[in-house]
Structure formats: structure tokens, C-alpha cells
Amino acid sequence: MDKITIVQAILCGVVYWLAVGNLPFVGLWSLQRPLVCGMITGLILGDPVQGAVIGGTINLVYLGFMSAGGSMPADMGLAGVLGTAYAIVGGLDAETALALAVPIGILGTIVWAGRMTFDSFFVHIADNYIEKGEYNKIWRANVLFPQIMCFCMTAIPCALAAYFGSAYIQGILDMLSGKVLTIFQIIGGLMPALGIAITLQYIFKGESKVFLFAGFLLAVYSGLPLLTLGIIALLVAVVYVQITGQMEGKAVTANGAAYDDEDDEEDD
Amino acid sequence: MEEKNKSIIPKAALIKAWLIWETFPQTCYNYERMMGQVVAHMFSAIINFLYKDDPEKRKEVMRREIEFFNVHIEFGACILGMAIALEEQKSMGENIPAEFITNLKTSLMGPLAGMGDTIWQGVVIPILLAVCIDLTRSGSGNVWGAVIYAVVIVVAAYALSYWNFMFGYRAGSEAIMDFLEKGILNKLIKGASIMGCMVMGGLIVNYVNAFCGIEIVSSTTTYNVQESFLDAVCPNILPLGMTMLVFYLMSKKRWSAIKIIGLIIVIGIVGGLTGILTY
Fold first, then answer.
1. How far is CA B19 from CA A16, B81, B232, in A?
2. Where do the structural domains in chain B lie, given as residue ranges?
3. Would the CB atoms of A26 and B157 count as touching at under 8 Å?
4. How many pairs of residues across A and B have Cβ atoms under 8 Å apart?
5. pLDDT for residue A255 is more than 60
6. Which residues, at least 6 apart from A226, have a Cβ–Cβ distance to it below 8 Å?
7. Cβ–Cβ of B193/A190 closer than 8 Å?
8. Mean pLDDT to the nearest integer, A97-122
9. Which pLDDT score is estimated for B220?
């Protein structure tokens, strides 16, 4: 496809609003992930499968991205929606779309910081409702007003970016030939290392370290799909925890045995 | 806290309060009170059952519940259930100081947020995503990975937070502390880390791409470094090395994600221009 209609652009903006506005909250866990919002964007543009594939590829960068304590390292919702939209309109392959989406995601953090700052205003409206005893109105301060503001801050810029950005994508594409395209693809190929490394920061510790290399070698030489690998990994984890648990149990028993030899042997 | 008095909050109101907590905790997320406002919003669902003939007491409850609060939504849901239970007991004449409720909330939110973020965002989501992205990209592509991911994570979030909320309401603060100190949690984190590491290893092979483009041309043969050397040592060794480099820079050198993105762009440009890397 070569053009995005105004209605499609507006729908893209609405998807982005729902993805980052946290309405409902589980949108943070579902719609905000590029795998999901990419598919929805694809649906709007008439190709959900392509949207899911491109969104899923973009999502690799954001696997373990954490929004903790109110911080947001990158706006994967914007990267997912716009990256997928541009890719479908411009006919980009997934790796190139990924390289394009990552800077967009960094841009999106401005929106998050702006919201977190301006939302403070509404809390004082809620304080006021409490002083007046109008508890049934608190929902306005918590949901209605901030979400109207959030809609203006997210849906409108995103719709404009989707509409006007895709008009230029063809021009950008013409530049993306030969060496430049190869560079984009190399960057897109390397970028998932970031998503994996961030995830590893939480789990690559102590005893679990060796299992990264076990999983790596298993995947290299078996060529198993990730779902199968995941099931094997689950079984390995269960067995490992059981065995180490037993060993700890034995250690406790052994200590106990120092006090009372015969009793323990009978128990066994 | 001794034997719990009879409950004066109907189950339906409690479910409504939980629904507000799970649905609107970040609709007005802000730096000043974080999630404080949603706690007040949640309490608005049950406040009219407390202090039936004392509006001033009701106002006191609301004032202290709109204060600063921040936690992992699903893992921290037990704190909210507990807070409702404590306010309920207090309203029925139990001797619970107001500061006790606030202190308990603030002291529990740190550990539950840390644990919740690690397990949920560090293990559950990455593994589920990895598998579902692989599913979506398999063959000529399909939407099932995206659909399955969205359904599973939404159902899991609602189920976990409901169970946890009601657990906090019924069992109270001591049970939560008890659970936090139990070894079962460490086992869970250990097992999840092992599974996560293995899946991440597989993910490197499938989705990080880096190929060396150097070819040494002599008069008779062409020596392709990627095929003749790197693949012979171990296929996908460059992606593994790249991932470990990024991990090292982030965990040991404290590089931010944005710095890493910059580095990857530089590597891509330099590698692409010189031909050291290819696609």
C-alpha cells in the first residue's frame, strides 16, 4: 500500500492512546507491547499478519523493558504503532522497520514524562472532592480528566505522525538503497541484543548463569522452535530446583544427625 | 491483630473496589503521589459502609488513603485488600492506630514492588513474549502469537490480582509478611531465572543477527571469515558475543539503554561501511 487515509491515521492515534494511557491498566502488559499493537495497527491498515510480524520483531528490543517506580526507559507503544505503520505503508522488511522504530521509541518518553508531571494537577482536584465529602466524584479526577489530557497528548501527535510521516516514507525509502539499507539491516539485526541483555540483568545471576549457554548451544545445534525450547527449559528448571531442594534437605538432616544418629536413619 | 470481627463490607463492593484497583491504577499516574489517587478512588467504592453516622471519620480515612502510594499492581494487590480490612476493623472499634495502617502500607510496597517487577516484567513477560514472537514469525507469519500473548497476560494479570487482593483482605498483614519470608518464593525466583536464561539463550540464536563480511581473497581461493572460521568454531558466536557485551556494559559499566542504542548504531554504521559486518 502506498497511502494512509485520515481515518486510518486517527485509529492509529487511538491505539497509541489506549496503549500508553493505561485505560484499562492491563493495556500496559498487552496492547503496549509492539507485538500486540503492531498487529492492531496492521489490522487498521488491512494486513494484521504483517503487522504482527513487524510488531513482534520490534518487540524484541523491548523484551525485558521495565517501567518501575514511574520511570519509562523507552516508549515501546509509539515505536510499535508508528514503526509498524511506516513499515506496512513503505513496504519495509522487519529488520529495517526495527531500526526505524527504536529512535521513535526514545522520542515517546517525552510524552510519558509530560503526563507524569501534569497528572499531579488532578490529584489536587481529588483532594478537593474529599474535603467536600464528594467521594463518588473521585473517578473524574482519577480517570476522566487525566485521560482527556492524555488523549490530546498521545492520539493527536501520533495520528499526525502516522499521516504525514507515511507521506514521506517513500522518499526515505529511495534513500535507503544499497549501503544505507545494509546498515539499517545490520543495526536492526543487532538491536534485539539490547532487549535480551536487559532481561538478563534480572535473571543472569549465580546458579542460573550456566543455563544461558546451555540454552544457546541447544538452540544452535538442535534448531528447535522457541516454544519447545521453553518447555524443555521449564522442565530443566523444575528438576534443578527439586534436586537442589533435596540437597538442602539432606544438609539439614545431616546436621540433625550429629545430634541423633539412629533416629534419622530409621526415618530414611 | 486478633480474631477478625464480622465483615460489614458486602462482597460485591469489595469486588468493585478490586476492579477499580486493577483497571485504573495508572490512568492518572503522576510524580507527586504515584498511585495514591487510585487508592482513594478504590476506597470510594466501600467508604459508605464504614462509619455510617460519622462523616468526619469517613473523611479522615479518605485523607490518609490518598497519600503517596506505589507498588506493582498485581503483586501489590494484597496490600490494598489488607488496607481495606484494617480500615474496616478500625471502623468497628478495633484499636488500630491510623499511622499503623499507613506505615504498614508503605513498608510492604517496597518489597512487593521489587519482587513483582522482577518476576513479572523480568521473567514472565519476556519468556511469554519470546515464545509468542517466535510463534508469530514462524512460517509465513500469523497473528496467533500476538493473540495468545494478549489473552494469556490479561487473564493472568486479572486472576493474580484478584486472588492476591482477596488474600490480603482475608489473611491480613501477618500472612503477607509470612509469605514474603518463606523460602518458596526464592525457589520460584530461582526456577524462573533458570528457565528465563535458557529461553534467552535460544532467543540469541534465533533473533540476534550479526555476520562478519570479511573475505580474504587470494589468487586461488576466497576465505570467508564467517563461514570458514566463525561458523566452524560455533555458529552464532557473534550474536552471543554482542549480547554479552551489551549485558556487560549495562550491568558492570552502568550504561543506559539509550547509550547502548547509540553504540549499536555506531557499530552498524562503521561495520557496514568497512564491510566488517554484513547482512
1. 23, 12, 57
2. 11-192, 210-278
3. yes
4. 382
5. no
6. B130, B131, B134, B135, B199, B202, B203, B206
7. no
8. 88
9. 82
Instruction: Quote the ipTM score.
Output: 0.84
Which among A45, A57, A142 is the top mutation candidate for probing chain B, defined by the most B β-carbons within 10 Å of its own β-carbon?
A142
Say yes or no for a CB contact (<8 Å) between B243 and A143: no
Mean of pLDDT values over B74-92: 92
Cβ distance of B133 and A35 shorter than 8 Å: yes
Phi, psi of B222 (to 5 degrees): -115, 125
Q: Which residues in chain A have their CB less than 8 angstroms from residue B258's CB?
A: 73-74, 106
**Chain A residues touching residue B147 (CB < 8 angstroms):** 39
Q: Please state the φ and ψ torsions of residue A188, each to the nearest 5 degrees.
A: -60, -35
Least Cα separation, residue B96 to chain A (angstroms): 22
Q: pLDDT tens digits for B219-277?
A: 888 888 888 888 888 889 999 999 999 999 999 999 988 899 899 999 999 999 998 99
A169: left (phi over 0), alpha (psi -120 to 50) or beta: alpha
The contacts of residue A256 (CB under 8 Å, 6+ apart) are A264
User: Are the C-beta atoms of residues B198 and A212 closer than 8 Å to each other?
Assistant: yes
pTM as predicted: 0.85
C-alpha B238, offset from chain centre? 30
Cα–Cα dist A120/A132, whole Å: 19
